[in-house]
Predict the structure.
Amino acid sequence: MYKLLLVTDREEVLNAFNQIQNWEMLGFKPPHIRHDFEGAKDSLAKHHADGIAIALDPAEERLVLNYLQERFPLVSIFEAGKSPEEVLRYLTELKSLLNRVRADFSNDSYEEIDMLQVCRHDFLGKVMNRQIPSRDALYRNMRLLRSRLDPERPCLLMELEQVAIKENRLEGRWTAGKDRLELTLRNSFGPDLAGMHIVPSLLPDGRIQVLACPFKGATEDRTPEEMRAILNERANESIEHLKEYKGLELRLTDIQILPALTALCE
């Protein structure tokens, strides 16, 4: 059973959570409930939490969020619904993530932090493929995943096309799976660069895109054009590396400057 903490002083949120009766059938213990920052600190000192919902006034909520970032940076923060229907929907999202992150990896070397990073990568792939329907859904999922990216700052979207394949390597090797090709692209285009998170993704139609999104608090002193120049240099280096060592020849076709990550939401 997953354990929850609800931190709120809002009557409608408390009423919505109180109307949920079948907590154990949902896969959760009934949540510990606190009403302010100090109460949240006290609860976390005494009880483990797999997911935390917060609904407070902005100043008090910032205190909680800053504390969680400092002390519990991997604990999922899920939306505090204002109706039983919303609560159930957000609990379902949380449970889906926790089930994946806490899965039995058997003989694999994955840990929870590794799986959380995989989930973040998959989510950003959906963002690039225009599968996130709204700004609210973007913010909600980024909070759930404890993403440190800044969805309000300008970001870059690069597109590449396949030019040629030496010795049919793409056909012989990469058709073994999308994940293997994406891993190769991540190893080549990564790691993170100049305060930007670099995420390559192979879209369902075969196009290759690379997202460069700034972390919160990073690259404030760089213009989008300077960010594009940095990414363009990395792209050229990566393309040469892929051609020489992997036999995969790509060509950079476009680098868009987006006003924010939210621009990719329909």
